[in-house]
Amino acid sequence: MILKRIHIFSSLLFVVILTNIFQFLHLNFFFIGDILSLLTLLVIPGMLILLTLRTNLQSFWATISFIVGLSLAFIMFGGLFINQTLPLIGISHPLAWKFVITSFDTFFFILFIAAYFRSKKFLYAIPQIKINSLDFTFFFISVLFPILAMLGAFSLNNGGTNLFIMFQLGGICIYILAITAFSNKISKSIFPSSLYFIGLSLLFMISLRSWFTAGNDNMTEYFVFQLTKNHSLWNMNFYSDPYNACLSITILPTVLSDFLRFNDMYIYKVIFQIIFALCPVILYLYVKKYFSQIIAFFSAMYFIAFPSFYSDMPFLNRQEIGFLFFGLLLYVTFSASIPKKMIYILYTIFGFSLIVSHYTSAYITLMIFPFAYLLTKIYSFNKIQDSLKIIRDKLHIYPKNHFTKHTYLNIFKILIILVFAIYWNPIFTKTSGNLGPILDDTLTSLTTPSQADNKSGDLADSIFFAHTPDPTTLLNQYISKQKSLAINDNLGSLYDKSTYKNYPTKYLDEPITPLTQVGKFFSSLHISIFDMQALARKLSAQQLQILLLVGIIGLIFYKVRTNIDQEFIYLSFGTIVLVVLFLILPEISAAYGVSRLFQQGLFFFAPFIVVGTLFIFSFIRYSIRIYLASILLIIFFIIPVGFFSTITGDYYPQMNLNNDGIVYNGYYVHKTDVSSAYWLKKNIKANSLIQSDTPGRYKLIAFDGFPSTLDEIFPPLIRKNAYVYLTNTNNPTKRVIVALESYIYNFSSPVKFLDQNKNLVYNNGSNEIFR
Question: How far apart are CA 449 and CA 6, in angstroms?
Answer without folding.
Answer: 69
